[in-house]
Amino acid sequence: MTQISETDLILNPDGSVYHLNLKPEDISDTIITVGDPERVEKITNRFDHVDFKTQHREFVTHRGSYKGKKLTVMSTGMGTDNIEIFLNELDALVNVDLATRTIKEHKTSLNIIRVGTSGSMQLDIPVGSLLASEIAVGFDTLMCYYDLAQTPEEEAISKSIQATTGLPFAPYAVAGSQLLKEKLAFDMLHGHTATCPGFYGPQGRTLRARNKSPKFMDVLNQFRQGDFRLSNFEMETAGYYALGRLLGHEVLSLSAILANRVTHEFANNPGEIVDDLIQKVLDRV
């Protein structure tokens, strides 16, 4: 078996993976993820008990039990660059023998559920909605570095968005887990998510720095490919879906819609909307 080098898979002196600071026994097979480290405890405060906690940088991990279900809650920070670190090291915990640095013959597929916040880019997706991302489109360049297989539909969406926006690269389009969507999001809105590589310029916001494409959100709002349209935007989902496919994990992104860029409305009760999403996930997972 080929051994993974010490520079490709970096381990801490205690044998934990480098950034997450975790060992295989520290996680369960179902992982709930959030961007904000402070939101981890907001979720695990509802657990029956928490039997493991650790933190390294923005990666906070709590493992415990909710109504008899073994769950792990982890924070990732923002952006697909963080998701790339998170998913590769999480996969290594279950599919690489860390002692021998070899890939295991029998693979483990994790259930990974992102519980996040998002903004709507369509008039008919109101503030306060809970939305499951069916397909995510990555406007970052992360997948330029990976050999991602896309379906013909996904490739067509990617090429059409590139042609419409004039971007110098084709955004990648990837579907999430149908299995998790049916289990967790049967009564939520379903949409297609734009994953942006930043919060300000890439999402059409302008403060003092001049925006090269100030109408970018308008272009995405109006984009159509048959019945396909973009419904909301955030900063992680496409990275989750692409790496989930590459590594063989079931991944679903769920978002509390806190803003609508068409009506310029922001929720006056964002905590309640997020709490509603958290409770639904815990009860259904």
Q: Could you characterize the architecture of this molecule?
A:
It is a single chain. With 285 residues, the protein is an alpha/beta fold. The chain folds into two domains: 1-108, Nucleoside phosphorylase domain (Rossmann fold), CATH 3.40.50; 116-285, Nucleoside phosphorylase domain (Rossmann fold, 3-Layer(aba) Sandwich). The chain is built from seven helices and 13 strands. Strands 7-11-10-8-12 form a five-stranded mixed beta barrel. Helix 2 (80-95) packs parallel to helix 6 (237-247). The two termini are 36 Å apart.
What CATH calls the topology of the largest domain is Rossmann fold
Number of separate helices: 7
Strand content: 25-35%
- Going across the biggest sheet, name each strand in turn: 7-11-10-8-12
**Distance linking N and C termini:** 36 Å
What structural class do the secondary elements suggest? alpha/beta
Radius of gyration: 19 Å
Number of domains: 2
The H-and-E topology, N to C, reads as EHEEEHEEEEHEHEHEHEEH
- Basic shape: globular
How many β strands by DSSP? 13
So what's the CATH class of the largest domain? Answer: Alpha Beta
The CATH architecture of the largest domain would be 3-Layer(aba) Sandwich
Mean pLDDT: 96
Sheet with most strands = 5 strands, mixed, barrel
The CATH H-level superfamily of the largest domain is Nucleoside phosphorylase domain
Features:
about 25% strand; Rossmann fold; about 280 residues; two-stranded antiparallel ribbon; 2 domains; alpha/beta; five-stranded mixed barrel
